[in-house]
Amino acid sequence: MTVTELVSYEDALATYDPVMGLEVHVELGTKTKMFCGCSTALGAEPNSQTCPTCLGLPGALPVMNAIGVESAIKIGLALHCEIAEWCRFARKNYFYPDMPKNFQTSQYDEPIAFNGYLDVQLEDGEIFRVDIERAHMEEDTGKSTHVGGATGRIHGASHSLLDYNRAGIPLIEIVTKPIVGAGERAPEVAKAYVAELRELIKALGVSEARMEMGQMRCDVNLSLRLNGVEKFGTRSETKNVNSLRSVERAARYEIQRHAAVLGSGGTIIQETRHFHEEDGSTTAGRIKEEAEDYRYFPEPDLVPVAPARDWVEELRAGLPELPRLRRKRLREEWGISEHEMQSVLNAGVIDLITATIEAGADAASARKWWMGELARRANEESIDPTALPITPTQVARVAELVADGGLNDKLARQVIEGVLAGEGDPDTVVDKRGLKIVSDEGALGTAVDEAIAANAAIADKIRGGKVAAAGALVGAVMKATRGQADAARVRELILERLGAAE
Ligand code: ADP
Ligand code: MG
Ligand code: ZN
Questions:
Q1: Is 299's C-beta closer than 6 angstroms to any atom of ligand 1?
Q2: What is the pLDDT of residue 482?
Q3: What is the dihedral of CA 385, 390, 395, 397, to 10 degrees?
Q4: What's the pLDDT tens digit per position in 120-155?
Q5: Which helix (H) or strand (E) holds 59?
Q6: Protein residue whose Cα sits closest to atom 7 of ligand 1
Q7: Which domains does the chain have, with CATH numbers?
Q8: Model confidence at 502, in pLDDT bands (50, 70, 90)?
Q9: Distance, CA 242 to ligand 2 centroid (Å)?
Q10: What is the pTM of this model?
Q11: I need a labelling partner for 384 at 20 to 30 A (CA). Which of 11, 40, 292, 481 fits?
């Protein structure tokens, strides 16, 4: 690998203006593949989910997946696109071992959706509009595994294995128009766009859009032009970037690399590049094909797609609230700041908090438990908070017990711990572990009397008017009751007994 000299980010931006283009592939969550009835379930034995159609055997004919088309239209509508009245699939011809038909069934000049936009929110709250060129339907390829080499790449491998289970899984490719005007914030815009798009796809219910599982991947096109120049420079295309952080880093790295090449009198060649997670760098891939190289032509084995207008309108009417607007509404309902909402998002608990509030908790305690105790636990175990063995209903019950005075925070944490440990519902854990606030006045009174008797000197100070000393006695009572007393009531009782007032 050749070490590339980079220009500092600040210096690059002082001379050049970045132009970006983002291509995002989303694997749809349909039960079956795009053109055959094979299952799309993950984790099956290699090549167990294939048939003559997705293996490209001669004579096999494709049949379109209606849910795939419906999902594409939903995505197009949510991105404010126009939906084609009539469009076709096209064959994109090239040979690659993981593509058994020797062409990919895709869409070329007749995409199902085009001319839209997505508003994304940057960290300081500013809204940046990203224009969408098109969203089109296509199919995924199979998966190659290169065996015998040190790196898992094809170089140095002794042989390669092919799994066609993924071949033919529906993909939607969403392509932006060139993104201009972002300046030094281009990498941030790229990350915010992919984040917003992911939220949108999830809200539509068409895919889980989990980047770490390859269900959503992004190609980052980037070029630089001298400040003040209208014409775009030559772009590089960093392929298959698969996390939000990597999208930002890849854009940043390419800005610095292009600036170095251009600044030293070199030229950027239009090529694909690989992104390296370890150090955030990119290295050259293949020289970019021209569209002509693919010999696109309309797919003769599939009927054209002509979605009826009333169906499109029905889908439009059924669209969920856009994530950005939902976040704004929830932020207002919960009474939290932009920054606090960002933390909620980062913790991945927005839906869990919403469900906990729906189950009866107030917003503040729902947020407190999910952002505190539970987010911490999920983080410690490196799992998604949704995978924790506790439900929003159970969290709401804990919040209710606290609100009713049956538990204090310390006891509530123990209840949550019990639920997570599989000891049952909150009420069961409270019973089994004996975790109730001692609010029985008789028992509290006895504990208070004992504490006064055992700390005579302190009691005298309080009698003499030094109310601040009561804390020590409250502490003694809490200790004696193993934290299960209501501290405020204990304090009242102590002051009452000693004839002192606040
Ligand atoms: P290809 O299939 O060759 O990658 P696409 O049109 O699918 O071409 O995608 C190219 C992406 O790059 C689009 O998002 C487009 O807006 C963007 N783009 C085009 N020209 C430039 C450029 N000079 N600099 C940066 N981005 C560009
Ligand atoms: Mg591309
Ligand atoms: Zn099949």
A1: no
A2: 78
A3: 170
A4: 999 888 999 999 999 999 999 999 999 988 877 888
A5: none
A6: 175
A7: 3-312 (no CATH), 332-433 (no CATH), 441-498 (1.10.10)
A8: low
A9: 15
A10: 0.83
A11: 40
